[in-house]
Design goal:
Number of strands: 48
Distance between the termini: 83 Å
Number of helices: 15
Structural class: alpha/beta
Radius of gyration: 44 Å
C-alpha cells in the first residue's frame, strides 16, 4: 500500500483503516512526541497494538503532506512491528528513529537522504542504503540483521554506531561500507558479525573502534579496510577475529592498537597491514595470532610493540616486517611465544628494544638489510653473535650486513672491543659460507682449480689471517706471534751457540788459516774461541742470541747477525736443527710481518 497524501489515509476504511497504534503514531509525529508501542521492547511478531504498515511509515518518514504537516524531529518510534517492505529509495527523508522495532521485510534506502538514521536495538532482514546521504549519525547499536547492512558509497555527516550489533551477512558481507565517507568515527564495540565487515576505500575522519568485537569472515576476510583513510586511531583491542583483518594500503592518522586481540587467519594471514601508513604507534601487546601478522612495506610513525604477544605463523611467517619503517622504537621484549619465522628483511627501525629471552623463542629469523639507529638491550657478545648467526641467512645464503650494522652501532657508541668481536665473527661465518659455496659449485672460481684444493687453500688462509691479525681487526695479535717466534729463536740460538754449532757466515773467514786452526783443533766451541778477546777474530761481529733472533724473525731489521753467523748442520745436532729452523722462521717472519702491515694499513680488513 503506497500512501502519498493524507487523502489516501482518509480513504482507508474497514479493516484497512488506521489502527489505534497507527493513529497514535501520526498524531505524535505532528507534535514531535516519541511513540512507544506496548512496553517498548522488541516485538517477536505482529500484533494489533504494535503493527505499523510500511506504507504509512514511509509517508511519515518523507514528511507527510500539506494537510498533515509533521514536526521537524521526524519519526521517533519505539517497540513497533513494521509490516511489509520499507521502500525509501531515492527519497528525501527527515530524521528517522526506529528503536527496538521488528521489520517483516527489508529496508530499502538506496541513494536516500536522511537527517539522521537510528535503528538502535531493532531487528530486520537487511538494510540496503548504498549511496545514501545522512547528515547526522547512523546508529545501528544493538541491531540484529539477518542478511547484512549495505552502506557502500554512503555519506555520513556524523558517527557510524554499531556497538553491540549482531549482523549476519550469509555468504556475503555482514557490513559493507566500501567507499563510504564518514565525517565522524566508526564505533563497532562488541559487534558480532558473521560475514565480512568492509570499509575498503572508505574515508573516516574520526577513529575506527572495534574493541571487543567478534568478527567471523565466511570467505576468509573478517575486516577489510584496505586503502581506507582513517584520520584518527584504529582500536582492535580485545577483538576476536576469524579470518583476515586487512588494513593493507590504509592510511591511519593515529595509532593501531591490537592489545589482547585474538586473531585467526583462514587463508594464512591473521593481520595484513601491507603498505599501510600509520602516523602513531602499533601495539600488539598480548596479541594472540594464528596466521601471519604482516606489516611489510608499512610506515609507522611511532613505536611498534610486541610485548606479551603470542605469534603463531603456523607453517609460514609469524611476523612479516619486511621493508617496514618504524620511526620510533621496535619493542621485542617479554614476547610469550613464537611459531614460524620473523622476517625483518630490509626493515628500518629507530630504536631496537629487545631481550634475549624473546629472541630465543625464534627459530627462523631474517635480519638481512635491517637497520636501526640505536640498540637498547643486552650487549652480551655470545648472545649477539648467536642472534646474528640466526638472522644473517636468507635463501640459504650468508649475508654479512647484519654483522656490519651491529658493529657500526657499537663503534659509534664507543664500544670498540664489541665492534671488533662482531666483525671477526662476521669474517668467520663469511669464510665458512665461501668454502661451502665452493664445495657446492656455487662460487665464482677458475675452472682449473680443483674445488677440494681451493677449499683447503681458503681454509689455510682463513686460519692464518684469523689467528695472526684477527682478519685485520686485531693487528696487535701479530706482535704476540712475532714475540713468540723471537723467543723461540732466541733460546734455540743461545743453545746452538753454546753447543759450538755456529760458524762465521763468511767464505773469507772460513778459508782463513786462523779459523781452520781453531776449527780443526780440539776446541768444543770454535766460534766462541775464535772471537775471544785474544783470538784472531776478536774484531769480528760479536754474537748475541737475542739480536740474532730479531734479525731472523723481523725481516725489516738488519742487525748484521745473520750476515755474520750461521748455524752449521755438520757440527752437531743443535746446528742441524737450527739450520732448518732458521729458514722456517725467516719465511714465517715475512708472513707475519706482511700480514701485520696489511692489517695496520687496512689492506686485508674489509670496508666496514
Amino acid at each position: 500500500m503506497l500512501i502519498r497524501t493524507y487523502a489516501d489515509i482518509e480513504k482507508l476504511e474497514g479493516e484497512e483503516a488506521l489502527s489505534e497504534a497507527e493513529r497514535t503514531l501520526v498524531e505524535n509525529c505532528k507534535i514531535g512526541e516519541v511513540t512507544v508501542l506496548g512496553d517498548g521492547s522488541l516485538p517477536d511478531g505482529p500484533s494489533t497494538v504494535r503493527t505499523i504498515r510500511a506504507g504509512l511509515l514511509r509517508y511519515l518518514i518523507l514528511g507527510g503532506c500539506i494537510r498533515c504537516r509533521l514536526h521537524e524531529q521526524g519519526v521517533v518510534l519505539v517497540g513497533a512491528w513494521i509490516k511489509d517492505k520499507v521502500d525509501l529509495e531515492f527519497a528525501q527523508a527527515n530524521a528517522v528513529t526506529l528503536m527496538r522495532c521488528g521489520f517483516e521485510e527489508a529496508v530499502a534506502a538506496h541513494q536516500t537522504s536522511f537527517q539522521i538514521l537510528v535503528l538502535k536495538g531493532s531487528r530486520l532482514p537487511d538494510l540496503r542504503a548504498g549511496g545514501a546521504t545522512i547528515k547526522g549519525n547512523v546508529s545501528l547499536e544493538g541491531l540484529k540483521c539477518q542478511d547484512g547492512v549495505l552502506l557502500s558509497g554512503a555519506e555520513i555527516g556524523g558517527h557510524l554506531l554499531c556497538n553491540g550489533a549482531n549482523l549476519n551477512g550469509g555468504e556475503g558481507k555482514a557490513l559493507n561500507a566500501q567507499g563510504a565517507t564518514i565525517k565522524g568515527g566508526v564505533f563497532l564495540r562488541g559487534l558480532k558479525c558473521h560475514g565480512e565487515v568492509s570499509f575498503h576505500g572508505a574515508k573516516i575522519d574520526g577513529e575506527l573502534d572495534c574493541q571487543s568485537a567478534e568478527l567471523t569472515g565466511r570467505k576468509g576476510m573478517a575486516l577489510n579496510a584496505q586503502d581506507a583513510a582513517i584520520n584518527q586511531s584504529v582500536f582492535l583491542d580485545g577483538l576476536k577475529g576469524y579470518g583476515e583483518l586487512c588494513l593493507s594500503g590504509a592510511k591511519i592518522g593515529g595509532q593501531l592498537s591490537c592489545d589482547c586481540a585474538e586473531l585467526t587467519g583462514v587463508n594464512g594471514r591473521a593481520l595484513n597491514s601491507l603498505g599501510a601508513t600509520i602516523s602513531g604507534g602499533v601495539v600488539l601487546g598480548w596479541l594472540i595470532s594464528h596466521g601471519e601478522v604482516s606489516f611489510a612495506s608499512s610506515e609507522i610513525g611511532g613505536q611498534f610493540s610486541c610485548q606479551g604477544a603470542e605469534l603463531n605463523g603456523q607453517t609460514g611467517k609469524a611476523l612479516n616486517g619486511q621493508g617496514m619503517i618504524v620511526r620510533d622504537g621496535f619493542f621485542w621484549r617479554q614476547v610469550k611465544s613464537v611459531t614460524g619465522s620473523i622476517d625483518l628483511n630490509g626493515a628500518h627501525l629507530g630504536d631496537l628494544v629487545d631481550d634475549q629471552q624473546s629472541w630465543d623463542l625464534v627459530c627462523d629469523l631474517n635480519l638481512v638489510s635491517m637497520t636501526y639507529e640505536s640498540l637498547i638491550g643486552t650487549s652480551d657478545l655470545s648472545f649477539r653473535k648467536a642472534w646474528l648467526l640466526k638472522g644473517a641467512g636468507s635463501n640459504g645464503q650468508f649475508h654479512p650486513q647484519p654483522y656490519q650494522q651491529l658493529a657500526k652501532f657499537y663503534r659509534e657508541t664507543g664500544h670498540r672491543y664489541e665492534a671488533r668481536e662482531i666483525l671477526v665473527a662476521k669474517e668467520i661465518e663469511q669464510r665458512k659460507a665461501t668454502r661451502k659455496a665452493i664445495r657446492e659449485g656455487k662460487a665464482r672460481t677458475e675452472s682449473w682449480f680443483i674445488p677440494d684444493v681451493l677449499v683447503s687453500l681458503n681454509f689455510l688462509w682463513d686460519r692464518i689471517t684469523r689467528y695472526i691479525a684477527g682478519y685485520g681487526y686485531k693487528p696487535w695479535l701479530s706482535l704476540g706471534w712475532l714475540a713468540g717466534m723471537i723467543g723461540i729463536i732466541w733460546i734455540a740460538a743461545f743453545l746452538t751457540w753454546n753447543a759450538g754449532d755456529f760458524a762465521p757466515n763468511s767464505a773469507v773467514v772460513l778459508t782463513s788459516p786462523d779459523w781452520k786452526a781453531i776449527a780443526d783443533g780440539p776446541s768444543e766451541n770454535p766460534a766462541a774461541d775464535w772471537t775471544d778477546a785474544v783470538a784472531p777474530g776478536k774484531d769480528y761481529e760479536t754474537f748475541y742470541s737475542f739480536a740474532y733472533a730479531l734479525d731472523v724473525v723481523v725481516p725489516v731489521l738488519d742487525l748484521g747477525q745473520t750476515d755474520a753467523w750461521a748455524p752449521s748442520p755438520a757440527r752437531g745436532e743443535w746446528g742441524y736443527w737450527m739450520f732448518y729452523l732458521q729458514k722456517m722462521f725467516i719465511v714465517a717472519g715475512w708472513v707475519v710481518t706482511a700480514i701485520a702491515a696489511a692489517a695496520i694499513s687496512g689492506m686485508i680488513r674489509r670496508d666496514d
